[in-house]
């Protein structure tokens, strides 16, 4: 079992104000811009992997998306989001689980979103497993958006080691099944004002495989 086990993340979410954790964003602007840019429809299926209690799901519900899925190791994080959404939580499908266990689902996703979850996988075998699961569940022509700490970003998050990634490294790692649609870097500021450099890639699932 990796260090990102549910009890650890539940502890983090139980003991921190959601708006005070380092990764908090008032508005997940980069993610929303990407979702707009790739041209999804209101019926497109969107999965937020390691979504925690991010406000992305609230924005997607508000925008009228009808096929929203949020997965996280921490039941507590998902409960925070569900409580915040109230009745709207019923419009979302929730998966309290480790993404590495795979998904017992028939459907595919048009947009797989991962902000600051994949980078906790520092074991190459776990990274490969994640890639296999993402490849299996993303529709041909669908998108994988990964935001991870960049090579000049932090080396840990919540006291866990992370792997830093550049745009080129992520594009290369996923190149068998995905083409790079867009890649960039940006600086996120934590609620205490600390800068954290991120790498973002939006990868497009190849049509032929
Ligand atoms: C730094 S937080 C980011 C949360 C959210 N993506 C955001 O941007 O606000 C990382 C999240 O990934 C989740 N996580 C870490 N490893 C995971 C895994 N293997 N499977 C599912 N969730 C995972 C944690 O529980 C945590 O909620």
Describe the structure.
- This protein is α/β, with parallel strands linked by helices.
- The protein has one domain (28-205): Vaccinia Virus protein VP39 (Rossmann fold).
- 28% of the residues lie in helices and 29% in strands.
- The strands form 2 sheets. Strands 3-2-1-4-5-9-8 form a 7-stranded mixed sheet, sandwiched between helices. Strands 6-7 form a two-stranded antiparallel sheet.
- Helix 4 links the parallel strand 2 and strand 3.
- Helix 1 packs across helix 4.
- The longest helix has 14 residues, at 124-137.
- The radius of gyration is 16 Å and the shape is globular.
- It binds S-adenosylmethionine.
- The site of S-adenosylmethionine has 20 residues, from strand 2.
Per CATH, what is the topology?
A: Rossmann fold
Under the CATH scheme, the architecture is 3-Layer(aba) Sandwich
> How would you name the oligomeric state of the polypeptide chains in this document?
single chain
Shape call:
globular
> H/E order of the elements?
HHEHEHEEHEEEHEE
What can be said about this structure in brief?
The protein is an alpha/beta fold and 209 residues long. Helices cover 28% and strands 29% of the residues. The strands form 2 sheets. A 7-stranded mixed beta sheet has the order 3-2-1-4-5-9-8, sandwiched between helices.
């Amino acid at each position: 079992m990796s260090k990102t086990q549910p009890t650890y993340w539940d502890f983090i979410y139980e003991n921190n104000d959601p708006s005070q954790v380092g990764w908090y964003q008032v508005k997940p602007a980069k993610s929303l811009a990407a979702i707009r840019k790739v041209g999804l429809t209101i019926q497109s299926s969107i999965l937020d992997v390691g979504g925690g209690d991010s406000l992305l799901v609230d924005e997607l519900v508000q925008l009228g998306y009808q096929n929203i899925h949020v997965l996280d190791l921490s039941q507590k994080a998902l409960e925070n989001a569900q409580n915040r959404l109230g009745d709207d939580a019923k419009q979302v499908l929730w998966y309290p689980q480790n993404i590495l266990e795979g998904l017992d689902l028939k459907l595919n996703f048009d947009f797989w979103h991962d902000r600051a979850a994949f980078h906790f996988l520092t074991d190459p075998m776990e990274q490969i497993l994640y890639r296999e699961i993402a490849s299996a569940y993303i529709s041909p022509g669908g998108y994988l958006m990964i935001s991870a700490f960049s090579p000049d970003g932090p080396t840990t998050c919540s006291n866990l080691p992370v792997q830093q990634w550049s745009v080129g490294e992520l594009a290369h790692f996923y190149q068998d099944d995905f083409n790079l649609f867009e890649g960039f870097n940006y600086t996120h500021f934590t609620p205490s004002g600390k800068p954290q450099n991120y790498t973002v890639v939006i990868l497009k699932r190849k049509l032929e495989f």
